[in-house]
């Protein structure tokens, strides 16, 4: 008879329809060391984090079992002793004094979100608890409790609670912290320490007293507020989740500690700046391509009009002068120049395009090295004219960038920033300079495979560019010596973007400051705004700084005078057929002009030419020994006239005009 009853009970338990035991947990992003960087809430905004028993301090588990269900490991889901005690106390006192629920019964209640006070609810909980014990291990039941237990507000589960109330993982709780988290699930709102500190303190003391875990009189106060859940690199987290909405965890290459420092640095960088100014900073290991820190805005909000939700590490902007090093590197590779080749920084025009230096001053003849150090505009334009803008675009694409050119066809202005690139692309390109001309694709997720990096330029050319950039003086107070870090600054047209990109032997750092909507910032310069921030970012890295590499064996290191003759002074490939830059030019009247005759004659204006000058009209000398570049020609006869000018070196210029 007893056996049949037992079989019937077993069948009744086995037939129990269990609620789902797989709990939805928050999506997490973790750094390269496993540290939490971002948590996304589940439905209704609740926070419930994945947790296994081996992530919990064993002393907490012991305290929980001792306080809530001391016979947990011996009963089969229902504790008859506890039930009888609870029933007897209720009959004696006329009210519920203690509960008879086991931890397994509490799990049943949490899974079904059922109440605790009615007997039919208790009966259902007992049946589900018995079924859970048949189908799950004790460890699995504990893990379900620790995943679903409520801890106040939208916080569910021990791991979320430990982070919210104490800012730490549950593997390293103090006895007092553990006691509060043992007590909270029984009355999560009534015992919330931020709202009811006295009740929370009393509940904590009862737990500690029962388990004899600590000296109650020496405990610190209960927490008076919840800690906000970590939200590092939010732009990256949003992007990863949008690209893979089914993943529950993203392991990234970033370092959480460095990310916090870079976030704080971006916030300081915009402090005191005009309204709407934002900042973006990236740090990567150029040897592996791993991104170590990236902040797309100082604050992940629209505060101060800075459009903080816009990820400025991925925004297409004009790179200003930051592309000049690639022009020089390609020119080194093509044998056009050497770092110590002399090049002329003088007025030049290509059709209607007449580039100017940023300060409007021309330096004349100087070395290519000096031209790059001074970030002059004319020399890289001369070199781009020889290389062809398409070659520069091809090198950028080989480095992993996707340059966007207004109108679709690149012109000479691309060398000065007339192309769209992102901070991410510039960091990758400069990482390629640091890696002897081969850019490794940047990676954000741990274990992400990357293709073999293509080569932008030769190792020798890349080293020569880096060596020149490393000789640029750091900003005052940067705390590093010249030669420690190779870097370049840039300012886009109209002062819309301020850049600084640099590298040492291990890391590459990129900084952008500007307004996300593209409006100008009067007086903004990359050297003043972005460079100090970049050097401060390098100061957060260890080791600091890592030495740059030695020159490749094939590198040609010679002075200007020792270079082969073709490399001593830059001349364009068609220079044999071109006029010298100091040859005479008739500036007025222009060739083909039709002028009205006047009694004053025809004004003549010349440019360049070595004095004295000779002026001929229709082949006959009109003026000789002219020692100025302006004159009045006594021309009165109507018809066509040819005017020729010859300078002291015998170089000539002529125009033909018609007088009416």
From TrEMBL:
Enzyme class: transferase
Gene3D superfamilies: Biosynthetic peptidoglycan transglycosylase-like, DD-peptidase/beta-lactamase superfamily
Pfam families in alphabetical order: BiPBP_C (PF06832), Transgly (PF00912), Transpeptidase (PF00905)
GO CC annotation terms, alphabetical: outer membrane-bounded periplasmic space
Any one of the GO BP annotations: peptidoglycan biosynthetic process
GO MF: carboxypeptidase activity; penicillin binding; peptidoglycan glycosyltransferase activity
E.C. number: 2.4.99.28
Penicillin-binding C-terminal domain ranges (all copies): 578-657
Catalytic activity: [GlcNAc-(1->4)-Mur2Ac(oyl-L-Ala-gamma-D-Glu-L-Lys-D-Ala-D-Ala)](n)-di-trans,octa-cis-undecaprenyl diphosphate + beta-D-GlcNAc-(1->4)-Mur2Ac(oyl-L-Ala-gamma-D-Glu-L-Lys-D-Ala-D-Ala)-di-trans,octa-cis-undecaprenyl diphosphate = [GlcNAc-(1->4)-Mur2Ac(oyl-L-Ala-gamma-D-Glu-L-Lys-D-Ala-D-Ala)](n+1)-di-trans,octa-cis-undecaprenyl diphosphate + di-trans,octa-cis-undecaprenyl diphosphate + H(+)
PANTHER family assigned: BINDING PROTEIN TRANSPEPTIDASE, PUTATIVE-RELATED, PENICILLIN-BINDING PROTEIN 1C
UniProt record similarity statement: In the C-terminal section; belongs to the transpeptidase family. In the N-terminal section; belongs to the glycosyltransferase 51 family.
Name of the protein: peptidoglycan glycosyltransferase
Lineage: Bacteria, Pseudomonadati, Pseudomonadota, Alphaproteobacteria, Rhodobacterales
């Amino acid at each position: 008879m007893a056996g049949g009853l037992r079989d019937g009970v077993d069948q009744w338990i086995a037939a129990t329809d269990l609620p789902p035991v797989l709990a939805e947990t928050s999506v997490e992003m973790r750094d390269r060391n496993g540290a939490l960087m971002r948590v996304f809430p589940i439905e209704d905004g609740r926070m419930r984090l994945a947790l296994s028993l081996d992530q919990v301090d064993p002393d907490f588990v012991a305290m929980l079992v001792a306080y809530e269900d001391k016979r947990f490991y011996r009963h089969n889901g229902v504790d008859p002793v506890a039930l009888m005690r609870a029933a007897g106390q209720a009959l004696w006192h006329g009210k519920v004094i203690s509960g008879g629920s086991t931890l397994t019964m509490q799990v049943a209640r949490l899974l079904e979100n059922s109440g605790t006070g009615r007997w039919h609810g208790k009966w259902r909980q007992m049946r589900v608890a018995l079924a859970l014990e048949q189908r799950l291990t004790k460890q699995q039941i504990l893990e379900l409790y620790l995943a679903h237990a409520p801890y106040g507000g939208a916080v569910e589960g021990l791991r979320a609670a430990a982070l919210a109330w104490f800012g730490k993982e549950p593997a390293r709780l103090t006895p007092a912290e553990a006691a509060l988290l043992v007590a909270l699930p029984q009355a999560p709102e009534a015992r919330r320490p931020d709202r009811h500190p006295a009740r929370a303190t009393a509940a904590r003391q009862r737990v500690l007293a029962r388990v004899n875990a600590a000296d109650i009189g020496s405990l610190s106060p209960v927490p008076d507020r919840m800690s906000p859940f970590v939200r590092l690199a939010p732009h990256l987290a949003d992007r990863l989740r949008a690209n893979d909405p089914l993943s529950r965890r993203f392991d990234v290459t970033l370092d959480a500690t460095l990310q916090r420092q870079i976030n704080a640095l971006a916030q300081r960088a915009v402090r005191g700046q005009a309204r709407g100014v934002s900042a973006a900073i990236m740090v990567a290991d150029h040897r592996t391509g791993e991104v170590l820190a990236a902040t797309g805005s100082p604050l992940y909000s629209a505060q101060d009009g800075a459009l903080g939700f816009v990820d400025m590490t991925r925004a297409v902007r004009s790179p200003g002068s930051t592309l000049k090093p690639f022009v020089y590197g390609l020119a080194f590779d093509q044998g056009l120049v050497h770092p110590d080749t002399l090049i002329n920084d003088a007025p030049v025009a290509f059709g209607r395009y007449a580039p100017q230096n940023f300060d409007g001053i021309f330096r004349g003849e100087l070395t290519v090295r000096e031209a790059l150090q001074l970030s002059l505009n004319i020399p890289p334009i001369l070199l781009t004219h020889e290389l062809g803008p398409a070659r520069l675009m091809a090198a950028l694409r080989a480095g992993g960038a996707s340059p966007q050119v207004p109108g679709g066809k690149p012109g000479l202005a691309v060398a000065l920033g007339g192309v769209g690139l992102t901070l991410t692309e510039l960091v990758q390109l400069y990482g390629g300079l640091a890696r002897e001309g081969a850019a490794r694709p940047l990676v954000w997720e741990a274990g992400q495979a990357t293709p073999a990096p293509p080569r932008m330029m030769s190792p020798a050319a890349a080293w020569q560019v880096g060596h020149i950039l490393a000789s640029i003086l750091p900003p005052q107070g940067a705390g590093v010596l010249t030669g420690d870090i190779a870097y370049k600054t840039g300012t886009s047209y109209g002062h819309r973007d301020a850049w600084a990109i640099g590298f040492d032997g291990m890391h590459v750092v990129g900084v952008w400051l500007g307004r996300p909507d593209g409006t100008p910032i009067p007086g903004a310069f990359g050297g003043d705004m972005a460079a100090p921030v970049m050097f401060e970012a390098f100061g957060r890295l260890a080791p600091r700084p890592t030495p740059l590499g030695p020159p490749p064996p094939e590198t040609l290191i010679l002075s200007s005078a020792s270079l082969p003759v073709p490399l001593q002074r830059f001349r364009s490939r068609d220079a044999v057929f071109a006029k010298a830059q100091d040859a005479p030019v008739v500036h007025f009247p222009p060739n083909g002009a039709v002028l009205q005759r006047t009694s004053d004659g025809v004004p003549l204006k010349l440019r360049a030419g070595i004095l004295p000058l000779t002026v001929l009209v229709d082949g006959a000398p009109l003026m000789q020994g002219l020692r100025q570049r302006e004159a009045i020609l006594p021309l009165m006869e109507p018809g066509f006239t040819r005017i020729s000018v010859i300078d002291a070196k015998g170089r000539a210029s002529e125009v033909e005009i018609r007088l009416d």
